[in-house]
Amino acid sequence: MEFLHVGNVWERKKTPLDFHLIFPDWYEQDLRAFIRRDRNHPSIILWSYGNEVGEQYTGEEGAKLSSLLNEIVKEEDTTRPTTVSMNFAKPDMPFAQVPDVINLNYQGEGIRNTPAHAHLDGIRTEPLYAEFHKGLPDKLILSSENAAALSTRGEFLFPVHEDISYLVTDSLGGDSENKYVSDYGIYAVEFDSSPDKVFKAKDKIRLLVEDLYRADGIIWVSPAHIIWREVPILE
């Protein structure tokens, strides 16, 4: 089974030369072509029409654009639910109300919510699985990106931090000179967590997570795509 995704950028840019420059002219053609190409594949269970888009920050304006894209998907295929992967929108925000399924990127286990992350800029949130379930009880919740962890197989560096998840640094877990990250499985990139922290967050809402598995939900463990000081990942 799989869910297919299109739309990393809508009107609000992530980089100067990305899709926002041609979004007004191409969003409908691209979205319709994407669905028509693959809608007869029986393995597809979910359409994702956005990933961490800037419109999460724009309230009703972003929700309106999301609704437009959602309607296009529904016009092309009424048999599968829709989703948008969110790393900022909260359950009480208009943006989160639109898709059929809630896809959370890193928000479920919490983002930059430990003392080690206090000096860092960027999104910061406590674990939100329970809050999304409370605020949107009729929506399925998937963890679409989580556990952006780092390690170099067979390399074990000391000292070892006592927490189950920690930000990799040169003094703990990292060796930038030899380009190693300790293989104890607790070190992660600055915006996310180790697998154990993810599992602990899900254990607190075990009934919800078990329901996801019984409903053939997908938990996609994303590979780390921002490498700490160009340290190689060996898996």
Low-confidence stretches: 207-235
Q: Give the number of DSSP strands.
A: 9
End-to-end Cα distance, whole Å, is 23 Å
Task: Please identify the structural class as seen in this structure.
Answer: alpha/beta
Gyration radius, rounded: 19 Å
At CATH's second level, what is the architecture? Alpha-Beta Barrel
CATH H level, superfamily name: Glycosidases
Biggest sheet architecture: 5 strands, parallel
Q: Which strand-content bin applies to the residues?
A: 5-15%
Number of helices: 5
Strand order of the largest sheet: 1-2-3-4-5
Broad shape: elongated
Class, according to the CATH hierarchy?
Alpha Beta
Spell out the helices and strands N to C: EHEHEEHEEEEEHH
Oligomer: single chain
Under CATH, the topology is which?
TIM Barrel
Q: What count of domains describes the coordinates?
A: 1
Helix content: 10-25%
Mean pLDDT: 85
Q: Nutshell version of this structure?
A:
The chain has 235 residues and is of the alpha/beta class.
Overall description:
The chain is an alpha/beta fold and 235 residues long. The protein has a single domain, classed as TIM Barrel (Alpha-Beta Barrel), CATH 3.20.20.80. Helices cover 25% and strands 15% of the residues. The protein contains five helices and nine strands. The strands form three sheets. It has a five-stranded parallel sheet with strand order 1-2-3-4-5. A two-stranded parallel ribbon has the order 6-9. The chain has a two-stranded antiparallel sheet with strand order 7-8. α1 runs parallel beside α2. It is elongated.
